[in-house]
Structure formats: structure tokens, C-alpha cells
What we know:
The protein has 420 residues and is α+β, with helices and mostly antiparallel strands. It has helices spanning 2-22, 141-148, 225-230, 274-277, 296-304, 332-344, 349-359, 366-382, 386-396, 401-418; strands at 40-46, 50-56, 65-73, 80-87, 93-97, 102-109, 127-132, 149-157, 160-167, 178-183, 197-203, 208-210, 219-224.
Amino acid sequence: MGYTVTMKFRETFFTVVLFSVLGLTWSFTEDRSSVQTFVRQLTATIQDNKVMLQWVDAQGGTGPVYIYRKIISSGSSVPQDLDPVQVPRGVQSYIDPIESDGLRSYLVLASDANGVPYTVRIPNTNYIEIDVKKTPLPLSKSDSKYQNISSLKTEVQKDSIIISFTLNGSETKSIQPLVLYRSTQPIRYVQDLVQAVIVQGGITSSPYIDYPVPDIPYYYALVFEDDIKQGNLRLEGGKNVTLIPAEVPAGTFRIGLPGPQKDIRSIPLPLLSVTATVPGALNTIQVPVFALPLSPEASKAVSALPFPEPKKAALKKPRVFSQDLNAIGGGEEFTLRSIVQGAFNNRDWNSVIEQLVRFLSLPRSSTIEARSRFYLGQAYYMTGKYREALFEFLLMKNLYPAEAREWIQSILPLLDSRGM
């Protein structure tokens, strides 16, 4: 017993001395843990000048997770405290960009239902140190493609708009397919594409001919399909975005619409004569104000009929794809996984609907869109919006027919019994 206590004292003393030498200690003194209130299996990996933290949530922590960070830059001995980061429970990962070289330490703390962190620090469990070095990244494919788009121009010809673009100053074919957007409002930021319309995808050569509705000014943007999937969109006026709107004049050429007339008035409804239509009919039609009651014999016969009680359909429980539970992948995979492990895991269905509708407002890869609609359909289902849920499952059934069929079969009886 004395040997065990001595060894524990030595281990604690050595840990405190080590943290003090590195200058990476936090002044936590309180420990409220009666069950497992600390995250486990904290790991840190470096990729593309980013530190990827991953961990397993504490069983006793029901609140958000707090990440405390310290940096000792190269050539300095003074630690720099960074602002703590709050991550929702269930995400179990965080990406920290590397701005400078040096020794970094991370302390990941679980918290209670009130958001108060449990101040438990265990090396190599919820505390980790890593020596980072910022390296110059090679020019990405996205950057090189956007540098190659020299200009995007529009020209009105009769009832069409000719959209032409140049790569490296010449109209050559593009190796990667392009997507053309059209909007009635100026396109300055990526979020402006939410209000735009996709005219054509898979464009590889210039020019492209568009036939829009006449008498409306339009702006255009040209982006690469791969950049939409990876979330690396960049918009630059004069290069891949038009600054001056193009407009087809109304009332001319093949699809030109006539201009508005000033002398248009509503056509009056024709007179309806019942006597002229049905000879011998009365000029007035009498309609009973109140429904006539059944006779005693009819009431007795109706009460004797066996009316089966309507069956109550058992509501389904939420389902999640296994790939959306693993902390792997980035870009749109990471965004969808955050929604699933956050609002969807917390059964905050209104928040799930809001986040997924916004997430699907931009084009996504086919598998990501199908899985997103699968979760959106479930959120509509849980809030009683069965018609909306049915459409979402119909839109994703081509890629996941078994999962969609199961939910559709559960929705149809609800639509039939509730008329929704």
C-alpha cells in the first residue's frame, strides 16, 4: 500500500514538473468528476498546415466540449494562450490551422448540462502536445484553374446571349467541366449563388449560347464542378463573373415576348341562364340550409354497421448512415457529418431542417445530396410534415432504394389516414 501511494505521488510530481518546464500548464484546481467526465483517445495529426484533433466524448459529459490551446513559437519561451474553442458534443473532431512553427498543446474538456467544463487533465488522454512546422503548400488544382480563367464575356445576339470565356488568354477547351450560373442580381460573393440558377453543367468549350427570358438583365458566373464539390469556390469580377448585365430586348426575334399593352382590361364573365340551359327549370334554385336528419330506421341501421377502428401506424425511429458517424473526410463530408452529429443527434428537428435546406441550396455530389435528403426527410417526418418528407425520400431513392422504400411505406398510411 505504501509503495502504491509513493508511486502515485512520484508520477503526479513528475507530471507537474514537466508541464511547468514546458510552460504549458493551465491553472485548474476543481475536479467535479464522479463518473467518467473526461474525453478519451485524444489524437493529433498534421496535414496541409492543419492540426486535426479527434477524440471520444466523455460518457458523463452532456454539454459542449471545450478546447484550450497554447503555443510556444520557435525561438521563444513565452507561451501564447489562444482563445478556447467550443465544439458541440458528438462532433468529436476539430481542425486547427497552423499559422507559425512551434510547440502546441491541446487540452480537451467535457462539460455538464450547464456548459461548465470538468477540469480533469490526463496526459495522452485528454491532453496532448505536438511540435508543428508550417510548410509551403503546393499550388492546388483549384488555384491553378482559377488563374487560367482569364475572362468571362457576354454578347447579345438577337434572342440569345453568347457567353464566352478564355483560359490563359485564349479560347481553348477546358480539361475540367465548368458550371454556368445566371442571376438577376449582381454576383459578388459565393453566397450570392444561392439565388442564382444553374444554366448548364459540364461545359468544356467556349462559347455557350443561352436563351433567357427577354427584357430582364442577367449576370453570369462560371465555376468548376470540382470546386463546388470541394467547397473551394472563388469569384472574381471580370474573370469568372460578369460585371455588366446582359439583356435580350422584348418583342423581337424568335422567342421575343410582346411588350405590355396599356389598353388591356379584364374580360367580363358570361351570363349564366338556368332556364335557357334547362327548359322548365325554376328561376331560383332552393338549397336546404340545414342537413336533414336520418329517420329512426336509418339511424338504427347505420349504428349496427361494423366500423373498424383506424389502425395507428407506428412511427419510425431516426436512422444514420455509418459513414456519417466516422470522423473522416473534409469539405462537404465534414459539413454534413457536423449536422448529423450535432442537431440531428440532439433531435433538434427544426434546426436540422434549417441547416440541411441551406446546405442543399448549393450543388452537391450525388451521394452527399442523397444522404442529406435522407436526413431532411426524417426531420420532416418527425415534425409531422409527411408530404415534404415523402418528396425528399423520392429524390434519394435512386442511390439508396432500400432505405427510401422503408420510409415511403411508413409515410403512405399516414398520408391516407390524416389527409396530409
